[in-house]
Amino acid sequence: MSLDLEQHLTFATYTGTLIPTPSWITPPYLDLNLGVIGASLYSLLYLLLEPFAGFLLALFCMGGVALCNFLHQQNPDSTFQGALAIHVVCWIFQFIGHGKYEGRAPALLDNLIQAIFLAPMFVWLEILFKFGYRPELRSRVNKKVQVEIEKFKSKNGKAQ
């Protein structure tokens, strides 16, 4: 989902500046286009959910959208084509991964907010957990995930 978010932000840089701001207050490559506004909303949400992990992820979001804006300014056609190709490949791998490991399609339509906003944070926390970040939170999350897996297994019998 992380690469997928990056591609959405890349596509959103094509809107152009939506809210003009003075140049002295605008960081380089962060004019207020749809990509920057979207990355800012994601960053704010992640900061509210888990401040330290959210701060690190916000740096990636804002850095990613700045990179997308830079690439868009350098070569809009190549940036769009590259983003589109990566976007399609990521979706294919996402469906393959969900089919192989969960035995079902991604739950995009089951809970759209979860799929769009929370999935990147969940993946980010899983990465941080591998490095020993907040073991008590990891334990609580894993217990809740196991409960949901058991519910899914009893309902569908497909989770592995």
From TrEMBL:
InterPro entries: Mpo1-like. One of its GO terms (cellular component) is endoplasmic reticulum. The chain crosses the membrane at residues 52-71, 83-101, 113-133. GO terms for biological process: sphingoid catabolic process. Keywords: Membrane, Transmembrane, Transmembrane helix. Pfam families: Mpo1-like. This is DUF962 domain-containing protein. It comes from Fusarium mexicanum.
